[in-house]
Amino acid sequence: MYRENKKHQQSSLFDSQFLLPPKLRRQMEESWANTFFHEVFLRIPEEPFAVLYSEEDSRPNAPVNVLIGAEMLKTGFGWSDAELEENMQFDLLVRYALGMNNLNQEVTVLRTLYNFRRRVREYAQETGVNLYQETFNAVTDAQLEVLELKTGWQRMDSTQLMSNIAQMSRLGLVLSVFQKGVSVLPSKKQAKWNRDHEAYLQPKPQNFCYRVKREEVEGHLVEVGYLLLELAEVLRRHQASDEIVGLVDRALQDLYVIEDGERITLRPAAEIPGHSLQSPHDPEATYRKKGGEGHQGYVANLSETCDPDNPVQLLTSVQVAPNTTDDGQLLADSLVEQSGRGITIKQMTVDGGYTGETGEKACRDHQVQMLPTRIRGRRTAPNRWGWEKYTWLSDDDDIPRLVVCPKGQAAWLEDSLKGDWLLARFDRTACADCPFYQQLCRVQPYKRKPPTLFVQRRWIQVALLRQGMSLANDALRAGVESTVRSFKHVFPAGKLPVRSVIRSTMVACCSAFMVNCRRIHHYRMQQRKPSYERVAPVLVPEQISLFMRAFFDFLAKTHHFVSHLKAEPLAVLSTAHLH
What we know:
This protein has helices at 22-29, 32-39, 64-77, 81-90, 92-97, 110-127, 131-147, 170-182, 187-196, 205-211, 217-237, 242-255, 327-340, 357-365, 428-432, 457-467, 471-488, 501-528, 541-567, 569-572, 575-578, and strands at residues 153-162, 256-259, 263-266, 286-290, 293-305, 315-322, 347-350, 369-372, 391-394, 400-404, 410-415, 421-425, 452-456. By secondary structure, the chain is α+β, with helices and mostly antiparallel strands. Strands 1, 4, 5, 6, 7 and 8 form a six-stranded mixed β-sheet that branches. A hairpin with a 5-residue loop joins strand 10 (400-404) and strand 11 (410-415). Helix 7 runs parallel beside helix 18, helix 8 crosses helix 10 and helix 8 (170-182) runs antiparallel to helix 12. The radius of gyration is 35 Å and the shape is flat. Residues 569-579 have low confidence and may be disordered.
């Protein structure tokens, strides 16, 4: 039965922070725990999680905000579940951050946390709603409102996150799938397959792979392929789960070429798609090669505010998807999500990976100006002007209507008979006098027609993007790379401790929570520090005169004292004389 947690709202004289000496109490109030409690914990909405619990009268649930907050701290500090439990029991700052101020209050056991994760995952599978992501959106929206941050200008970047799976050879992968399929057969059938194919059904497939010579690998792959084909039919006859049957079918489709349903050959490595199966333990993980390195898993896309007027910048959107997802699609999805939350974006600073028809169309639909630092595509040949050298004028519907060459000659754009092409006819006399005609200029000469410029609409769109590029935008975008490092530093070597898109999204949101919390804490501490400005004293002439008079009197008295010391040393040192 769901019940809202209100224990943290009831203070007691025997709460832990009141038992501390004043100095330690002040340190606790200035710590990250105080910021986490007020800026994150108190804003966690518990009501959306009521759907995870029974509506009948029963034992009340563990505090939802404590469970969510504990997940954030676990990810943000890189703890294991055992370390999380220990810190919740004995660390005063952790208990304070989670509203557990009474030392008599019991800590939630790990089994409760495991069940809570499972319920969130199952709910996301059924409805497509990840409650962790919804919580991040709700808390972040409240933080943006309280801090009065401008969200109209944002920057975005993506990063690779590897799934918690082992890297397998193709032989190791098909053996793992084969073993998983056999393991769900009835006991008698399973015993028969174990007897007939004992070598392939060893507990650890890698033990078999290590002993196979390189020239024997292909033969074993083909043999296991035929076994998988037979196993798929057996699983269907025994009405195995769609998940297992689909796993075997996917391995056959991705790694083999099947002819007439019987003959099997290996699929060439170059033809294996990036979305092929990477592990039977995480079917959603995909493969992508980026920067010369291969990655098995997912891509995380981060968006944060970057308006120069903001005193602090916060992450506003976190997405996780298979790493074969195009960055332009991630940009489009982020704009839709933030628009649904009431966040209006006017400018988006991105790198070249987000350019393309998908991302640019999304920006046009949401009236967002894309500010890229790079553009996809090849560079212009050095013997021709780039299309960005020309001036393109459009109407209110963003349809190009007029083009002006770099020398100031203008011409109307007309639709061509070649589909998406446009043409512009320039004045023959003006072009004949131009030193760049038939050189750098792209205008083509004709005998019976005026000089004509042919251009595709896509080239005009790219040219307009290039014209908006600037060095200042490059410097502004560099900040999001630092954000990515802050987001990923809790994942050793960029590898997640979990599998599947849903669990990866839950962990990614927790990491983003802590990035924002640390930034807010730093900002709050800067506000609390008094500003000491050393101001030079301003002396008026009267003050200067008095100061000089006192200084010369001091010199005169000092001279008188020294002269007496030379003449009568004992008398000068007497108490009366000194007085």
